[in-house]
Amino acid sequence: MRTIKQPGAPATERIQWVEARGRAFSFTLDAGLPLLEAARRGFAAEGFAGGVLNFGHGALGPFGYVMPALSKTGENAAFYSETYRPAGVTRTRLGSMTLGSRDGAPFFHCHGLWTEADGKASGGHMLPDETVIAEPFEVQAFGIDGAMFTAEPDPETNFKLFGPVPAARNGARATSRAFALRLRPNQDFALCLEASCRTHGIARAKIHGGVGSTIGARFTHGGVTEPFATELAITAGTIAPATSGALEAALDVALIDYTGGIAEGRLIRGDNPVLMTMELVLEVVE
């Protein structure tokens, strides 16, 4: 399996997890608000401090983002590009967000694909402090109660990364058993999720959210992303028994690599290792 050497020693715990309760819902992001504040309000209205969401067509402007890039200093295995600030209204095609906290304040990690006002197709990592809703659009969310994605220093990657930590229950109406997860580098994405489900006695699960990076990508349709640094969003995902009875993860993703290459499709199980991180929520399907 492909691996990338990280600057720090691997953490012993390779799958960071917290069990919680959660609920799926949808809401509309209001025009004129920063994306971070619009998302925070949507979760708060349902009684949640954080969670994950996915979206399709939306409109952003002003808008700031970065793409994956090679590390110039060697202090990280990969890094971010300069900041891009396209003029006019950018139209999103898809995206996924983790809403949590950083330094005691709300923060998000959000990847997506979009088309800029001049017609350029692009994607990457949206910047919370530079992204504003241009027109209202709906998102599909999953709030979690009893866990919070919190940004903490990660010695292995030398980044400050989201990971799930236990949080006090706030009494939000939560209808499902759920697990907030963070997958660490150099382990296969699908096989990790299958192993996690087996560990926790989960027979079926649905993925909500899904923000992270893989070491390139190999797709079931035959497509290959060779550049190793990507920004990835999960567009759909399930873990369920195959005809053999063994658990299998079906992971549909969209990504952009550091050369600007865009790819979408279902990942091959066993051939798509995590580069830096992968954050998501598993909802147990009873």
Structure overview:
This protein is mostly beta strands and 286 residues long. The protein has two domains: 23-143, 60s Ribosomal Protein L30, Chain: A, CATH 3.30.1330.80; 177-284, 2-Layer Sandwich (60s Ribosomal Protein L30, Chain: A). It has helices spanning 35-45, 189-199; strands spanning 15-29, 51-55, 58-60, 65-66, 68-69, 79-80, 90-102, 105-115, 121-126, 133-135, 137-145, 147-154, 159-166, 176-183, 205-218, 224-241, 247-257, 262-266, 274-284. It is globular, with a radius of gyration of 18 Å. The two termini are 33 Å apart. The relative contact order is 0.23.
Structural category: mainly beta
Number of contiguous helices = 2
Number of distinct beta strands = 19
Largest sheet: number of strands, sense, barrel closure: 15 strands, antiparallel
Tell me what the CATH architecture of the largest domain is. 2-Layer Sandwich
According to CATH, the fold-level topology of the largest domain is 60s Ribosomal Protein L30, Chain: A
Low-confidence stretches: none
| Envelope shape | globular
Mean pLDDT, all residues: 97
| Rg, Cα atoms, Å | 18 Å
CATH class of the largest domain: Alpha Beta
Count structural domains: 2
Our measurement of the CA-to-CA distance between the termini, rounded to an integer number of angstroms, reads: 33 Å
Percentage of helical residues? under 10%
Order of helices and strands: EHEEEEEEEEEEEEEHEEEEE
Question: Which percent range describes the beta-strand content?
Answer: over 45%
CATH homologous superfamily name of the largest domain? Hypothetical protein, similar to alpha- acetolactate decarboxylase, domain 2
